[in-house]
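Example record

The entry below shows one chain as it appears in the dataset: sequence first, then structure tokens.
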Amino acid sequence: MQRARILTAAALVTATLALSSVSVARGIPDYIAAAVADSSRPDADKQRDAERKPAETLAFAGVKQGDQVIELAPGGGYYTRLLSLVVGPKGHVFAIMSPPKPDRPADAPPYGAAVKAIAADPHYANVTVSEQPIYSFNVPVRADLVWTSQNYHDFHNFTGGTIAQVNRNVYQALKPGSTYFVLDHAAEPGSAGRDTNTLHRIDKTLVIQEVHAANMELNGESDLLANKADPHTAKVFDPSIQGHTDQFMLRFRKNF
């Protein structure tokens, strides 16, 4: 009898886990799943999917087909490709890069080459790359989504503008009812902006305070990319933690 109860309990646990997996899968819209599975994505990007969880991240942010998206600081374009594929031909992605620094070495690799190559690829014809200061960018449409991943901390370190200007500019760029999505590396709780220029991390609480100050409210957060084993003491590029940092995702709403 005891063995039967144990087996029954085990079966219930298995069934519950299977149901949870199905529920997670059902939470991913088909167009997001198709974007992640798209054969045009480079192998290097696909190899990072396990750690970055792009399908769940895009679904949490709420990006949809036909959306007008502003991506701030696209880096190598990992999410630029995905956003382009998700919004489709009726949508558009405006990838905003800060202009190159005047003291950039003459022999440095072409500035922004990776994301500019994406925009030049007909498969991603709905991507426009623009070199503008992040704190004063301007695009010809009002956006459904402003997206920045692993870069918000860097906005604290601009010499020509402030984080308050960045967030006010995001507010102006968004349609009422639309979303500002921030994903970043977590710093030690209570550290505020102490580590933005050294460890490339930021305290989640500070981000919420700053975006609230720009009249956008928090309407969702996710621990999908959390890592409790991260001591928050190493630079995010340190081999001991690179690719496995504790990260937070915040979704803000512009109500009016």
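Notes for this example: The longest helix spans residues 2-26. The two ends are 62 Å apart (CA to CA).
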